[in-house]
Design goal:
It is built from one helix and three strands; from the N terminus they run E-E-E-H. With about 70 residues, it is α+β, with helices and mostly antiparallel strands. It has a domain of about 50 residues.
Length: about 70
């Protein structure tokens, strides 16, 4: 499974947790709980990649882990 950075935060406006994937433009999901938002965005990541692949678009590589020297 390809790993992307996911940022999860509470939205007062939406009254839900929002999960964004900065490396995949427009890739985000929400959920009533932190865990639900994460599960939902995992589904959206797979769908985002499938659609990009079917349209012949470039799929960004994940940033990966930081390495400290």
């Amino acid at each position: 499974m390809i790993r992307y950075e996911v940022i999860i935060y509470w939205s007062d406006e939406d009254q839900s947790f929002v999960a964004e994937v900065p490396e995949l433009a427009g890739c985000m999901a929400d959920g009533a709980t932190y865990q639900a938002a994460l599960a939902n965005v995992e589904t959206v990541i797979r769908e985002w990649i499938e659609v990009a692949h079917s349209l012949g678009r470039t799929i960004p590589e994940p940033k990966g882990r930081l390495v400290y020297a």
